[in-house]
Protein: Solute-binding protein family 3/N-terminal domain-containing protein
Organism: [Clostridium] citroniae WAL-19142
Amino acid sequence: MRRLMALGMAICMGVTALTGCGGSSTGAATGAQTEQQSQTEKESPEESNSSESGKDAGNTEENTDTQKAASGIDKLVFTYVVSPLNVPSIIEKNQEIFAKSFEDMGISVEYAEINSGADQTQALASGDVQILYAVGATSVILSAANGADIKVLNMYSRSPKAFCMYSTDDSLTTPESLKGKTIAGPAGTNLHELLVAYLAEGGMTIEDVNYVNMGIPDAKAGLDGGSVDVALIAGATAYQAKQQGYHMVADGEGLIKAIIAVAVRQDFYDANQDVIERFMKAQEEISGFMQDNQEEALKIVAQELDLEEEAVKEMYGYYDFSMEISDEDRDGFQKTADFMLESDMIEEALDVNTLFFQ
């Protein structure tokens, strides 16, 4: 049955190349220009300064045109995913940071609200989306294992404590106590990996429980209604379960890395270095806003997610939003890839170093 689930998740991905062309124009000095320059030298300082100012404005316009030509595109589509607590995405859209960053390049910005990791990577492969701004490591690995052109540009977040297993039965305190229980949550995700890692601590596998593949809202609803014994949930949904007094069986601390990344296609990266550079500067601006305006940032997130500010503040402490790719991040990716191989989600071992730009 696991093989059928894995095959169902695998996607045949077609890749559409996005290429850019660049050009520039140069002007040659003419006799008329020389004469005009001589005349300018006779002008008053004010007139001369005015002339230089106009020249600078013309150069600026020319530089902008060159930027537009170099990019070769006029639109960028980013994924927009707010759950479980994707603060950078919420802040970016609220402050219109991407739109402002690409405006002088003549590039418009659009958002695709795609919550499924499999659908995200498919949209990237088809060219409908150019940048996956928050995609799970499991989704990146599965896409790459199926031959898609996908690479990790940098990190988005790490948040093992935000991914949890909740139950209404407080006697479920060990992996062994879950034997035969019905456990619901989304397959091929950090939560799925959490369950497998937790069971392994008791020498068990997912075959020892009744695992049901369903989304976070449905898993929580099943827990509320009593049709499941344990729900694999995260973010605001996990916080809600805590507020209801439900029993937390385990969170991801020490079990998973819970890595979320930023991903693009290799061909897009190669053809649009100017866009990539501008995007990464925009990411730094987002990080700066979050650090310098934390209270405002939390209010913006609370409003977007319809949560109390105290709830957002508590959950915010679970997250590391640094962009840099560390050795620990690479190790986390490899651990996830190994988990997916053991779970029959991918058929061959994957060296995750191939997922990063060299």
